[in-house]
Fold:
Amino acid sequence: MVRLTYYFKEGCCICDTTEEMLNGLREKHALDIRKISIESDDELYELYRFDIPVLEFRDGSTLHGRIKKKDLLRKLEENKE
Structure:
């Protein structure tokens, strides 16, 4: 299993693409995804508004912006529980 936090904003096409990629990998990699809208918190909005989507992993590392599938797969392998 891989646990990660997914920071996104409604109406963001890059976020939608990333979510589709995550959904396609969910079963194979046993993903436990915690979704958080940056619009739900002013601090999160200020922190991530230019970086969304942001994927934060158990080891504290992140991927953001236009996330490449190969980079995501590498992070998933590194963060397996």
In short: The mean pLDDT is 96.
